[in-house]
Amino acid sequence: MRLIITEKNNVAVKIAEILAAGKPKQASFLKVPYYIFVDREGIDTAVIGLKGHVMQVEFPPEYADWQKVNPADLISAPLVKGATAKSVVRAVKKLAEEADSLVIATDYDREGELIGLEALELAAEANGRLERNVRRARFSALTSTEVTRAFAHLDHLSHPLAHAGEARQDIDLIWGATLTRFVSLSTRRLGSQFLSVGRVQTPTLGLIVEREKERRAFVPVPYWVVSVDLGVGPERVTAVHKEERFLD
């Protein structure tokens, strides 16, 4: 059996509809849906959709206590991966046990490559042979033409691209957790009142604050606009001086 793993369930549904010689059969494991069909080349196939990232990077349990762990220690702390959707992980492993080949059909971008690598690692835990029998389907639209072309020209996973996504993930955790704890402890804002700091959210908040300062500091200044209405017969046009606004 060939196993196809997509990033989301709706993509799995569409791929099954496009590739199946007949009508795909829906099944489920732990309430996680997957779709079984025979493709137009006679290959028994199962396709399952993830829920985006089903694994997340985190600190080991010994770093959980904000009061006891120095925030600076998080910078060099080891990182571990834990499942965020355990039922999906178990469903992937169950299907992987029965598969003899694997196709990663996650989104065609950096995060999709990382999610695909995580899916391969999960499948390989259940069936080590899949590490040697894995291909990558790359498509940018869920159309019959695009998906059919992608599966006719299967590629390989880009480990450098996936590791770039992994580096982004690690940086987000280390940067965010270290500064969130430092700022929250410094201001004694703990528990539900903690102050969140993030690689993207904090600079964005800074831009909003600067714009708000500009808005509050704005002092309106009277100005004049010189314009003239011109017309020949029924035709009318308004002309404005090239300077547009005169302040004095």
Note down, in words, how this protein is organized.
The protein has helices spanning 9-19, 86-98, 110-126, 144-152, 159-186, 201-217; strands spanning 2-6, 25-29, 32-38, 44-49, 55-58, 80-83, 101-105, 134-136, 227-232, 235-240. 38% of the residues lie in helices and 21% in strands. The strands form three sheets. The chain has a six-stranded mixed beta sheet with strand order 2-3-4-1-7-8, sandwiched between helices. The model has no long low-confidence stretch (mean pLDDT 95). It is an alpha/beta fold and 248 residues long. The chain is built from six helices and ten strands; from the N terminus they run βαβββββαβαβαααββ. It has a domain at 2-164: Rossmann fold. The longest helix has 28 residues, at 159-186. β9 and β10 (235-240) form a beta hairpin. 23% of the residues are buried.
Brief synopsis:
The chain is α/β, with parallel strands linked by helices and 248 residues long.
Cα gyration radius (Å): 28 Å
Mean pLDDT: 95
Query: What is the CATH-assigned architecture of one domain?
Result: 3-Layer(aba) Sandwich
Quaternary organisation:
single chain
CATH class of one domain: Alpha Beta
DSSP helix count?
6
What string gives the helices and strands in order? EHEEEEEHEHEHHHEE
Structural class: alpha/beta
What is the number of beta strands? 10
Q: What is the CATH topology descriptor of one domain?
A: Rossmann fold
Global morphology: flat
